[in-house]
Amino acid sequence: MTGGARVEDYLALLKPRVMSLVVFTALVAMLVAPGGINPIVGLIAIACIAIGGGASGALNMWYDADIDAIMSRRTQNRPIPSGRATRGEALAFGIILSVFSVTLLGLATNWVAGGLLAFTIFFYVVIYTMWLKRSTPQNIVIGGAAGAFPPMVGWAAVTGTIGWESVVLFLIVFLWTPPHFWALALYKQGDYGAAGIPMMPNVAGEKSTKVQIFVYSVILAAAGMLPLLLGFAGWIYGAVAVVTGLSFVWLALRLLRAPDSITMRKTARTLFTYSLSYLFVLFLALLTDTIALRLGVI
C-alpha cells in the first residue's frame, strides 16, 4: 500500500451510506423527544452522531482490511484493500474522529449522550467487529445493538436521560437488524463464505435462516406497534406501522416458501431492499405524527 489518502478516500472510510439510516433514526429521536433542543445545539449533536458513526466505519475498515481484500469486488475497492489508504491512516482517522465526536457531544449537550455515543463506537468496533463478526453466526443479532443505539443517543442529547420511549425505538432497530442482514447474507453467502465469516446461512443453512428471518419479522412487526400502544405515537404512525409491518411479514413468508435457490435469492434481495425503506418510513411516520400532534392537526 502506498497510502497518501485523498479527501474522497477518507470520506469512503466513513461508510456514509451504511451509517446514514441509523443517523436518521437518531435525528427523529431528537425531534420527537420532549422539551426540544436549541437548533444550533441540535445540529452539533446530529453532526457528532454522524461523525461518531463514521469513525466506527473507519475503525471497522481498519480491522477488516484483510477480509475486505478477498470478500467481494465491492469490498476490494475500499480505500485500504485498493491501496489508496493505509491501515495506519484509517486507524488514526477513526480514533481522532471518535474522541472529537464524543467530547464535542458531551460538551454541547450532556455526558449521558456523550457516554452513549462512546459506548456505541466501542460496541461496534470491539464487541461486533473484533469479536462477534468472525466468531459466531449470532454476530449480527448481538452486534446489531450498535446500530440500534443512535435513537437513544439522540433522545439523551435532548433530555439528558434514557427514556423508555428511546428504549422502544432501540428495540425496533435491534429487531430489524437480523432479518435485514440475513436477507443480504442469503444472496451474498458466497462472499461471506470466501472471507470465512460465519453468517447464519453459511453455518445453519438456508432453511434455518429463512425460518429465523420470518420469526424476527413477525416480532418486529409487533414491536413496531409499541409506540402507538404505549401512547407516544398516534393513528398516523399506527396506520403506517400496520401496513409496513404486514408487508415485511408477507415478504418474509414469501422467502420462507421460496421453492428453489434462484427464487430464494431474488426474494431475499427484495426483502433486503424493502427493509431499508421500512425503517426509514416507520421513523418518518413517527416524526410526522409528532409534528401533527404538536401543531394540533390531529
The percent of residues in helical segments reads over 70%
Compute the average pLDDT: 92
> Largest beta sheet, briefly?
none
Radius of gyration: 19 Å
Distance between the termini: 59 Å
**CATH homologous superfamily of the largest domain?**
UbiA prenyltransferase
Choose one word for the global shape: flat
Number of domains: 2
What is the top-level CATH class of the largest domain?
Mainly Alpha
Explain this structure to me?
The structure is a single chain. With 298 residues, this protein is mostly helical. It has two domains: 1-162, Tetracycline Repressor, domain 2; 163-298. The protein contains 17 helices and no strands. It has helices at residues 7-13, 16-32, 39-63, 65-71, 73-76, 87-108, 111-132, 139-143, 145-148, 150-159, 164-187, 189-195, 200-204, 206-223, 226-229, 235-256, 261-294. Helix 4 packs across helix 12. The longest helix is centred in the last third of the chain and has 34 residues, at 261-294. It is flat, with a radius of gyration of 19 Å. The protein starts with 6 loop residues before the first helix and ends with a helix. Pathway: Porphyrin-containing compound metabolism; heme O biosynthesis; heme O from protoheme: step 1/1. Its EC number is 2.5.1.141. It is found in: Cell membrane. Its main location: membrane. The chain crosses the membrane at residues 18-37, 43-63, 84-105, 111-132, 139-158, 164-187, 208-229, 235-256, 276-297.
Q: What's the structural blueprint in terms of helices and strands?
A:
Layout: H1 7-13, H2 16-32, H3 39-63, H4 65-71, H5 73-76, H6 87-108, H7 111-132, H8 139-143, H9 145-148, H10 150-159, H11 164-187, H12 189-195, H13 200-204, H14 206-223, H15 226-229, H16 235-256, H17 261-294
Helix pairs in contact: 2-3, 2-10, 2-17, 3-6, 3-7, 3-10, 4-12, 6-7, 7-10, 10-11, 11-14, 11-17, 14-16, 16-17
